[in-house]
Amino acid sequence: MNHTPRIRTVVSCTLLVVTFVAGAAACGEPDGHPLSEKPYDAGDQVTFNGPSEGERTDPDKPLEVTVKDDDVRITDVSAVDTGGRHLAGELAADGKRWHSTAPLAAGTGYTVRVSTEDDDGAPGSRTLAFETTSPKKLLKVSFGPQAGTYGVGQPITAELSAPVTDKASRATVERALKVRSTPAVTGSWYWVDDKTLHYRPQDYWPAKATIEVRSNLAGIKVTNALYGAAAKPLKLTTGDRIEAVTDASDHSMTVLRNGEVINTIPVTTGKPGFSTRNGVKVVLGKEYYVRMRGESIGISAGSSDSYDLPVYYATRVTWSGEYVHAAPWSTGSQGSANVSHGCTGMSTGDAEWFFDTVREGDIVKVVGSEGETMTPFDNGFGDWNLSWEKWQKGSALQNGTPDSGNTVQAARLRPQV
């Protein structure tokens, strides 16, 4: 027989009050038991398959709660771990057995509250507590970048301590990695490789936003031998929306703050054979002084293209050495010709202004160049060069994932002028 939990009787009675006033008294004390009746201790009627006192249980073993008496049934079970996470479960139709339908977390404690009801409608309760054994191998997560204020193009990164390859395990990890933005945005994780995830919104982050990143993976089973570890949360803020758009064909850079143009700068970009990459890049850092040499990008010392120069106000946008920087030797070409080896050059005064205006995470976009498009992941943060549709396919919770064997290698730090 399927016994209806007591709470449903209350709702039914409430509806009867509206339709049949004469039934109000009956609803106050159904079956002769007032709704405020204190539940009796059902400790001798409820059993579970937990460990003996002082021992810990195997998290791979499902939790089961049963009643011994034929005239008693379970009406509700709540199992919550020390982190406040509820354990999913299923109650049998006859109310005699409840079992967990999700894995227990490892290395944590559980409090289980069981509600019962006998054939006379009298409520009972029992509270159980136990702990699970600690995992032998942990999956650690490190979030990036460091806490601070960034531009609206800054992706969130998550580095795992061990590779996760199959889609089900990736989905487990991804569900546990939480990103919250105020104001709210639509965003998604992307599996760059087996150990690296990036998170970005559909569009850039809002200006002046607060972004909080945390992991609920602690104790959660990821693979047969791997459980999640606790992770340090991360909190970021964004500044103004700064976008620098360089038109290589027009030899100019337009800088916008929150959609308003605040400067237009004559520039020079990469000459034929060294064309600047098109696409969206993100400021990676700023260096007041960098020594740039042609040998670092494969130019021999005796070549006519060889150079060895001190460079100031250098704003890095790729790991391979593309910067926005002062180039006083090319002021005659700035605004009219492309003569660099891939960087965006400008006067010293303009470079100092740009250096002082932008921060890590700000957007630097190049259009109109003969160069290739910035790659998404292996040379900085080119994440925004993937469409939102393609980005979502990199999530284990969406339609697909990139190749699990794909491993991204960071490009060498090679300055180029």
Strand-residue proportion? 35-45%
CATH superfamily of the largest domain: L,D-transpeptidase catalytic domain-like
Categorize the overall geometry: elongated
Major β-sheet annotation: 5 strands, mixed
Number of domains: 3
Helix vs. strand class: mainly beta
Question: How are the strands of the largest sheet arranged?
Answer: 22-21-20-28-23
Give the beta-strand count: 28
The count of helical stretches stands at 5
CATH top level of the largest domain is: Mainly Beta
N- to C-terminal separation?
A: 81 Å
CATH topology of the largest domain, by name, is: L,D-transpeptidase catalytic domain-like
Cα Rg = 31 Å
In which range does the helix fraction lie?
10-25%
Ranges where pLDDT stays below 50 over 5 or more residues in a row are: 1-33, 400-413
For the residues shown, what is the average pLDDT? 86
The CATH level-2 architecture of the largest domain is identified as: Beta Barrel
Describe this entry's structure for a reader.
With 417 residues, the protein is mainly beta. The chain folds into three domains: 6-131, Sandwich (Immunoglobulin-like), CATH 2.60.40; 138-238, Immunoglobulin-like; 242-392, L,D-transpeptidase catalytic domain-like. Helix content is 11%, strand content 35%. It contains five helices and 28 strands. It has a five-stranded mixed beta sheet, with no helix packed on it. The chain is elongated and about 95 Å long. The N and C termini lie far apart (81 Å). The model is unreliable at 1-33 and 400-413 (pLDDT under 50).
